[in-house]
Fold this sequence. Notes:
Strand order of the largest sheet: 2-1-3-5-6-4
Distance between the termini: 35 Å
Number of strands: 12
Order of helices and strands: EHEHEEHEEHEHEHEHEHEHEHH
Strand content: 15-25%
CATH superfamily of the largest domain: NAD(P)-binding Rossmann-like Domain
Shape: globular
Helix content: 25-40%
CATH class of the largest domain: Alpha Beta
Amino acid sequence: MTPTVYGLIAHPAGHSLSPKMQNAMMKQYQIDAHYHAFDIAESDFETAIAGLRVLNVGGFNVSTPYKQKIITQLDEISPLAQRLQAVNTVKQVGNRWIGINTDGDGFWKSISEHQRKQNVIILGTGGAARAVIAQAKTYGVQHLMVFNRYHNDWVKRQDAIETLSDGIASLENLDNIEQLNQKLKQADILINATTVGMDDDQSLLSKQQVQQLPQHCMVIDMIYRNHYTTLLKDANQRGLNIQNGLPMLVQQGALSFEYWFDKQANIDMMTAVIEENKK
């Protein structure tokens, strides 16, 4: 009997660590399945999705640039995925495809429950930031300051973020240095949800700004391809608790696995597999 196919659709997909992580979990539970990364060119998207239906895939993850585009191909999506207009996990139930979004939950579950999180600052308003914003209140965040460069659709974006956060977030101009510096002094968690620093030594915050963070503040950079961005290095020099995007990746993968198989994921093992393959 042919193993059930699971996978990831993305472009590019070759750098993904998800296959290592998911196949290790399937092996641990002796599940007759295999997880594969499908690198799908945008021009081939609809043909490829039709192919996945023919393959009778059991489920798949969705990454850039298809989290929104996949919605039209699904039979049902969760209320959270509807709010975000983004899906990152799909499961076949009967002959129907159901999509959910585990990005926000994966992020917040990667943070210790003992970490203070009443006042949170997020840099960026992209898809990753929006997922974190949408689930922040559920995990005990009381005030959320979202900083971004000014855009033409600023008012519309302000309203969207306030609604998405259930009223706890406000959008502020990143170029308002005085306000940003004031809020940094009160932050329990600082999150970089942009790609700044992924491929170079750039940072949205100066060393002097990082110096203004309280000693209990946790600094998180959602980038995981660059283990230690300049932001994390500066925060580490201050002795602050830091975290890159790998714990979030593991938690998201664990939530996907549990959704597909109704079995508890082994977070420690998944983390070990990821760390080993990052070396």
